[in-house]
Amino acid sequence: MSELTISAHFVHAALGGAKRNGRDTRTLLLSAGISPELLKEPGSRVTGAQYSRLMQTLWQELGDEFMGFAPHPSKPGTFATLCLLIVHAANLESVYARARQFYGLFDEPVSLRLHQDDTQAYLSLHSNVPLSDPDHFLQESLLVIWHRLSSWLIGQGITLDQVTFNYPRPAHGDEYRGLFHCRLAFDQPETGLSFPARYLKLPIIRDEYEIKEFLKTSPADLLARPDDRHSHTSQIRAIIGRDFSVQIADFETIAQSLNMSPQTLRRRLRDENTSYQEIKDNLRRDQAIYLLNREELAINDIAYRIGFTEPSTFHRAFKKWTGVTPGAYRQGERDWEPGSKDSGAS
């Protein structure tokens, strides 16, 4: 998880509820080890670890697992109690039934509904009251959490067929491509996940000990965890790895290793809202950000580690990816490190 990076949009969106509740968002960012200065660039990103710490900070500071986006808070421990209930379910279908019953016991602003037929299942979110969530952050987060949690409970990634949203495509719509590797449909009647119904009958393989260990970092890490199902994107990422000092295989070689033609693989990646070039660029970008947080490494060494023979080329690429140069990114992290003399609230 430490090498996954998250768009600054989701950082700003996560802070929306805290800001409306009068909290000092700069202090919250610094508590999570995130530089407020770096976030001024629209292309900036944070590490998965930083994003997880921000989620945990928001829940603790607000005393609300809905982070200020709903009229009434969801008390800390609500998600943990739900998980301890659903881990004893027989299968995934039973998990969703128990979750709906659990939510029905409280004045919760968001509920789950499961619709299914012989081949398809559709898990939808419903807001019982208006949400103070103009960026749709709460809905997006719940979709990600329930997809990742469901996959973890049955021990295999759930392949999504489509994700629908009951609102127009937002300005940050491109960011959804990294969250859900499937078709995206906006302006739909409901917000939810569509997947093959066969997953509903799969047994829950986790026990109470595992769920307690899982809850030590969840659901914060679920939001920062990459989609680990067996998508073609994930398989290609695994083939490429993180050693960019050696030449990356060309597309034809990758297709051959996956036992398919280049044309078929190109079509499959298009269905997953990505391309081979984008996968390579994102891997390099995330690895560069991860390595820049290791101050013992010189920037020129990092350039070579991620496959650039000329440091100047790396500088240009990094600025294109994030909006800042590698040096500015590292200096920003150093200047705003929690506990530094400049890290106090203004």
Automatic annotation (TrEMBL):
SUPFAM superfamilies reported in the protein's UniProt record: Homeodomain-like
Region (Disordered) residue spans: 327-346
Organism this protein belongs to: Hydrocarboniclastica marina
UniProt-recorded name of the protein: AraC family transcriptional regulator
Keyword Transcription: yes
Superkingdom of this protein's organism: Bacteria
Cellular component aspect of the GO annotation: cytosol
Keywords on record: DNA-binding, Transcription, Transcription regulation
PANTHER family per the UniProt record, alphabetical: HTH-TYPE TRANSCRIPTIONAL REGULATOR GADX, HTH-TYPE TRANSCRIPTIONAL REGULATOR VQSM
Pfam families linked to this entry: Arabinose_bd, HTH_18
Comp. bias intervals (Basic and acidic residues): 331-340
One example GO MF annotation: DNA-binding transcription factor activity
HTH araC/xylS-type domain boundaries: 234-332
